[in-house]
Predict the structure.
Amino acid sequence: MRSWIRLRSGTDRCDAASRAVGAGRTENTQHLLSMLFRSLNVGRWLLAVGYSALPFFYGARRLTVACLLLAFGAFAHAGNESFPTWRGDPSLAGVVGAVPDEPVRLWEFRAGAPVIAAPVAGDGMIFLANRRGEVFALDLAGNRKWSRKFTETATDTNTPPASLSFVSPVYAGKTLVLAAANGEVLALNAADGQTKWRVSIGGKVQGSPNLVGGMGKAGWGVVVVWGAAAGSQAQGFLTCLDGKDGATLWKTEPFVRTDGTIAVQADRIAFGACDATIHVRSVTDGTEVASVWLGDENQVAGGVAIAGDLVFSGSRSGALHAVDVKRRTNAWTVAGSGELFTIPAVDEDLVVYGAGNGKVHAVKRTDGKAVWAFDTRGGQAESPLIAGSRVVVTADGTVFILDRATGKKLWSKTLGDSLAPPAVVGGMLIVASDDGTVAAYGKKDR
C-alpha cells in the first residue's frame, strides 16, 4: 500500500496536456521566519537575519518581524516535542530534532486499522488517524488519552454514512485540525477531542492542510487544497479557514489542479501544479505573486519544500528542481527517471530526497551536485527528514537511519509491508504502518 502523502502516479492526477503558464509577478521579500521556527522547535537553525532585509511586505501592506513572530507563536512550542505538520514545520523542509543512532523500541500502539499518514504532535501529545475515520491522541509514553470516530455528514437517510478518510492533520493553538477526502474539515480540542468546528469546503481535498500565521480571530489559519469533482483534471482551489471557527478567510479563483501539500513560509504559500509550474501566493488573500514553469513533462503532483527564496520540488519526469521564486527562474535541476513526487528535506547545506527506484539522494543545496546516494532496495523511498546529523527515511516496510554527511546506513528496522513517512517527536522516531501499528523508537533510558 502506498502512502496517501506521497500521492499516486502523476499520470492519473495531472493532465499532461496542461503545461504552459505565463510568468507571474515578482516577489521582492526575504523570508527567513521558517528558519527561526526550526530553531525554536528543534534547536538546529540559528537566527541570522540582517535588519536591512526587514520589514516584510504584502504588496502595499507592511508586516514587521515582531508581528510575524507573534503570528507564528501558535506553531512554535519550546523544546523539540512539537511536530505540527507531517514534515515538522509549515515550510515542509523536514528539518527536525536529533534521533539516536541505534534506537530501541520504547512503546507500541495498535490503531486497529491502517495508518498511512504521519502523526503530528504538540503540547506533550501525539495525534494520528487511521483509515476507518478514527482519531487518536496519545501521550509521549504511547498511552491513549482519547479517541473518536468520524463519519461523513449524512445526506441520504437511507444509506449509512461512510467513515471519513483523513490526510495528515496539523496542530496549532491547542487544536487538532483534520481534512477529509470528501472536503470536510474538522477542528478538535487537543485536550479531550471535542469538536470545536466542522465545515465543508465543497470539493475533494487534495494533499494535507497547512498552517498560516497572522490570520483571523485565532491569529492562525489553515490552508486546504481542494480540487474539482472526482474525475476532473481541470481545476483546483485554495481555501483559508480561520483557526477559531472554520470561517472562510479567503478562497482563490479556480486554477490548474494541484494535488500535493502546500508549503508556507512567513507571508507566502508555495506549491506545484499540473501545469508543470511552481506557484507562489500571498498568505493574506491567496493572490499569485510569482510563478515559474518547469518545462515539458515536469508536472508536479506532490508537495514542495520552501527555504528562503528557493522552492524545492520533484516532478513527473523524475527530476528534482530548485526554483528561485524571487528571480522567477529554475536555479538548478537534477535529472531523474520515473516520477518524483516525494518532498525533499532541506537544511543549510543539503537537499535530501527519496526516489521511486528506492534510492535516497543527497545533493548540494547551492548547485544540486551529488553528495551521496543510498539504495534502500525498496520500491519507493518516501519523503525523508533531516534529524540533526542523521537522515530518517522509510521505504516500503523498512525505516532507515542514515549518516547525513555520507549516507552510510547506521540502523534499519523492517516493521511491515508499507510505512507512512516518519515523525520525530521529543527525540523519538515514530513510525506508523499499514497494519495499524504505531511504534516509537528512542534511547532506552528515556
